[in-house]
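Hey, I'm writing a tutorial for new members on how sequence and structure tokens pair up, and I'd like a real worked example in the thread rather than a made-up one. If someone can provide the structure for the chain below, I'll link this post from the tutorial.
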Amino acid sequence: MKTLLAILAVASLPFTAHAQIMKCVGAGGRVEFAAACPPGTKAENTGIRNSPAAAPASPQKSLAERDADFRKRATEQQEAAKKSEEKNQQTADQKQNCEVAKSYLVSLQSGNRIGKTDPATGERIFMEDSERASEIARAQRGVESSCK
């Protein structure tokens, strides 16, 4: 009898592919699980839906569509990497400009002699004290703009 029930259960599997599984309690406390309970048994809902997991929710894309999607994702990843690299480069440049501006301001404020080249003659000249105050103000603005 048990083999007959097992055979019937296996044979009924294709028919219950999308059905809800019910617990059927028969006479004498005999329990069966089926999509529909036979007459004379008590049906209890198990809350289990028997739906095949292999059934796709949407139709499969063709090979060409999948290839196009892959190429699109690869292009987007390359663009994102390029933008990230550019942003990192800009951040590094800004940090370096800030450091240069700060060091120039510190050297101006230290009172040491600052030499520069005269553009007309090419000779080395030293900054006068009258120029130093305006140069410190200009360097301070450069630090403020570079070190945000």
